[in-house]
From TrEMBL:
Gene Ontology cellular-component annotations: membrane
Alphabetized Pfam families for the sequence: Anoctamin (PF04547)
Transmembrane region(s): 197-219, 231-252, 322-341, 353-373, 393-414, 505-531, 552-582, 594-611
Protein name: Anoctamin transmembrane domain-containing protein
InterPro entries the record matches: Anoctamin, Anoctamin_TM
Recorded GO MF terms: chloride channel activity
Domain of life the protein comes from: Eukaryota
Anoctamin transmembrane domain segment(s): 189-629
Cellular location(s): Membrane
Keyword Disulfide bond listed: no
Amino acid sequence: MNELENEEAVFEIGVVIPRKIIQEKDESSDCACVLVEEFKKVGFVVERVVGIADEFIKLAAPLETLGRTAAELQIKKRTHIGMDLQFEVEEVEAFVKQPDGSVFSWCERFHCYCHLIYGIVNNGNSAIKLKFDGKEIDWETGENLIQKLESENIVKQVFPLHDEKTRKKLLRTWALHWWGLTSQPIDEIYSYYGAKIAIYFAFLGMYTRWLFFLAVFGLTLQLIDLRSTKLVVLPVFFVVVILWAVMFCQFWKRKNSALLARWPLSSAVAADPGYKIPGRRDSSLQPPMDLLKIFETDRAKGKQVFQRHEWLGRFMRFRNDAFIIFSIICLQLPFELAYAHLYEVIGSDAMKFGLTAVYLFAIQYITKIGGRVSVRLIKNENNENTEKRADSLVYKVFGLYFMQTYIGIFYHALLHRNFATLRKVLIQRLLLSEVLENLVENSLPYLKYSYKKYSVRHKKKREKGESADRIQFSSRVEKEYLKPSYSASIGEELEDGLFDDFLELALQFGMILMFACAFPPAFAFATVNNIMEIRTDALKLLAILRRPVPRAAATVGAWLNIFQFLILMSICTNCALLVWLYDEEGKWKVEPGLAAILIMEHVLLLIKFGFSRLVPEEPAWVRANRAKHTTQAQDLCSKKLLRTISGGERNNGEMKVKRL
């Protein structure tokens, strides 16, 4: 208990309410004052900040409050013997601390904050009259206060706040640490942002480090004249690339499992990321309550109803997938082929470059529309939890982006067999697409933030008159409120900004792998881009955007399966490129060279599926640590059970003696 009292409370949540025009004389009925008092009653440390246009209530939860709430929520945390046990305030020393020394992770703290904020209800016997700017509100018995005020547009938003001390430290050691290349303080990122964002940056860092070898190899091939030996060197390079990709995916699984063993994630966190976000409807599809009631009353009938519910959900998923595939083939494919054909027939390089720029700009809106359609479609799918629904969304939207990104390149590579044009397209895509993406994803949030600040200042000046002094934003909480949130381009219902970051990596991975034989220096382009991406993404999270709502998912999810799919595609496409390099006349005779390429394809496919058997997904120390904890837990439970049995028999013996 003393350990809970020693930790310093930090303001981590902000509640936004409009700035009042009419000041209420009776503070007992003033809406803002009542809200502050209710926050204090549940254990928050509260600070009110008056901004230019709004008022902000900053909330900090002392560890004693968080511990009590965690016990109420029955949050399970990892103990020193490896078991996940329900948290108890009195036994805090039995639980493993976070890498930064705190008792609770950011995900767990956020869960507790939401429970406390959205758990304030009127427990009185009558309604309470609240006033705000001359408006009267009845807070009915049993009614949730925050939801009531949100419906009345009095509480505008509840959002996470940056911790200035930690933010500045991460800026210095992470975002502005350019000389570190791929080195990152992953444990600190996990402590501050949660597991999902930390996993993304760990993946990006490992992927970039592994790219160094292929970048050097590809540049060497580009600088050497391969006219006489290209039919020997390029197949070797292709084999090395595929082996690299297969090993990278397998060793990432080992890295991921090592991180999860190092971070004390609770079982609830690993199972479902679905801590409810304020103001957002819970989107996990659990079996409806009426089905559970039927199953309890009549098991035979309930079994049939559950089976019908299960297969209906699977059918809806199949229907949605078929609809997306049909839309891609009938709507997007003709558009992509038209662009590829125009690119082929246009003679001027400047016009080609301009056409590509216009195409990339236009296709962004088309794919965003497809993403929003996908979000609506999966609402009827019977997925297990929020993260499963997010994975379903990722698969559907990636299909749209896959067609958008690669169909034009396939057109030049497979139909026209024009390798000079193919290299130009790859250079333009790698340069223009990467530069444009980085420019948009970093400048657009800043422009939005600047426009919001200008709008607030302009509105305040009109209220005060033209002679008003220049208005400055003095409070940091107001600046954070005006910053954009870390949201996905397809909407924020199921995914946050990590969707766009992972999508960018996946499209880059596919482009450099599937056409490795056509343009080996692509790996050098990707390496330089990713080194910059690590720092710019960190700077974006720390300086340009609000602190994201934590997601507790502890893996990259569907994206790893997409990377595996792109490896399979790269085996096929590179073999096709080698065949056309070998068979320039198009005779398609089964000669030794072509036969060797065919055999090589089958061998690589065999290696792709067999390598996972050779390299285990978990390091030996992780398995040994888990076995040790399991043994300790079994021994402890056995001793406790034996003591309970012995104590029970002793008590029974004493009772018999007393009766005699």
